[in-house]
Each structure stands twice: as C-alpha cells, then as structure tokens.
Protein: NADPH:quinone reductase
Amino acid sequence: MNRVVRFHETGGPEVLHLEEAPLPEPGPGEVLIRTRALGLNRAESMFRLGQYGIDPVFPSGIGYEAAGVVEALGDGVSGLSVGDAVSLVPSFAMTDYAVHGEAVLAPAHAVVTHPERLSFEEAASVWMQFITAYGGLVDLAGVRPGDTVLISAASSSVGLAAIQIAHKAGARAVALTRTSAKRQQLLDAGADEVIATAEEDLPARVRELTDGQGARVIFDAVGGTALADLVTAAAHEAHLILYGLLDRAPAPLNVGEVLFKHLTIRGFELFEITTDDRRRAEAVAFVTDGLAKGELTPTVDKTFPLEDIAEAHRYLEAGGQVGKIVVTVPTS
Structure:
C-alpha cells in the first residue's frame, strides 16, 4: 500500500488527510516515483480552498512538486532509468496528476533529473519558483543588464528566485515587502535594496534609486490596491508582470500613466511556459545551468514530516516564511 494526501471537501488545512491507496502502475508515457520530498505552493492552498483555476474532483489528491527516485517506467518513456533521482516540473493539472504522496505517477515530460549536488528537499524547491520567475522576467519582460526590477512578495520562494534570476541577467533586484521585519533576511538573500511598502513611499523610493527614471521591470504577486503605486513607480515602456493575486481587492489603475508611459501590463502563469514543449525545455535548460553554476540556489525555509501535512499548510498560509516549505517523506 501507499499513503497519499487527499481531501473530500474544500476548506482549511484540516480537510487534508493521509489515506492508504494501492501502489499505482505507470501507463504509457508515465513514470512512477517513490518520493522523498514534497514542495508546497500557494497553488495547493488555493486548490484546497476551491479558489484555484480548476475545481477539485472528490476525493481529490493534491500537489504539483515532488522529488524522489524513479521506481518504474511506462511504455514509451525514454531518457530515464529506474533509480534516477528526479524532480517534477509543474506542467499538468492536479486533477490529472496529484503528486503529494509516497509513490506517485507523473507524465514523463514533467520529470527532470536535477543536479546531483541538490538534496531531495532542495530539488522539491526548484521548478515552480524558478520557472515562474524565469517566465516573467526573462521570457516575457526580457530583463537585461542595468535594469531595476521590483519584486513584490519578495520573501516567498518565487520572490527569492526572482532576486537570483535578476542578478543572473545583470539587473538590480529591489525587494518589496510589507514591513521591515524581513529586511535583513532579504538583504542576506541577495536583494540590492529593500522597500517596506507599508512604511515607505514606494514611488518616491524608486525614483531615488533610479535617478528619477522608475523601474523597467515589475514582478508582482499581490495585485489589489498596491497596483497603483507600482504603476507610478514604473519607468517609460516598463513591463509590469502580474503572476499572483494575494490581494483580491479591486485594483485601482491610473489609465493616464499606463497610456503615456506606454506600459505593458501582462498577466502570467507558469503553465504558459511548462505546457509548451519548446519554452519548457528552454526554461529547464536556463534553470539547470544556473543551478550547476551556483547562480541559482533554492531556499528551504522549514520542513515538516508527511504526517504533519495539515500543519505545513497552516504554516504556509500564515505567510511568515522566507523561502520554500517542504514536506519530507520517510523511506521504507
């Protein structure tokens, strides 16, 4: 038998349970993975709450990210071998493949052999955040040397990844955080500057940092009422990439600033990259190169044992983490 994380109704972390399930067998194009670590994301929390882009089908599994060892291969799978240490690129619906469990199936296109220097906990903390940051900053905004990049929710795993990717591209990373409580941690994580948006005048600080020019790239996970200040802080012909909705309040928008600054405001989600074979391959190559060179390093904030999956979700929703929350899976 095999334990998997399931829920039978939407709701808080308490709806999550570990349940026994038969060991699955991989079909054509599928890989069976014995997991060692599971990565948590806001997407799982939203899915569990019924606030995600797709609705769960009960009883529902959950989970986009995992790392472990290949246990079996389905017909037609090439480039992988039993015993390989692998991790998963989120490129499938959780209603098709849910990977938070002890032994899980995944489509072969989502399975990546990660650099050997990574632990399983680190490997479970790579693909969602680094490809999200890559997609917004590199693929869409074309970040380049000399750019100033504003990164909201900077202490999240995606925010920390964006700081590193901005640096890899030769840009300056300005971390945005609500209060100054995480200022030193963000500086230690590589941010060139930190702006506490509830304590400082964001547009004025950005003008100071850019000699009055504004930021050419803005990578925002918040939306809501803060969007107005981001538009004001934007440079002429800036790219404002919206990849999250932490604040669901209506977003004010100064249309005049958008018009006369020639701004590009673009909604973005990871699956634009990961469900396109060419763009996914380019993203994986970019991130793998950065990992191998030490330019990109995942940050694990805290780990929880699989038995404490509900508590891990509570910790995620409290929002105090700096980096990735990981659930560890015992070896049998």
About this structure: The first strand starts at residue 2 and ends at 6. The domain at 129-270 is CATH 3.90.180.10 (Quinone Oxidoreductase; Chain A, domain 1).
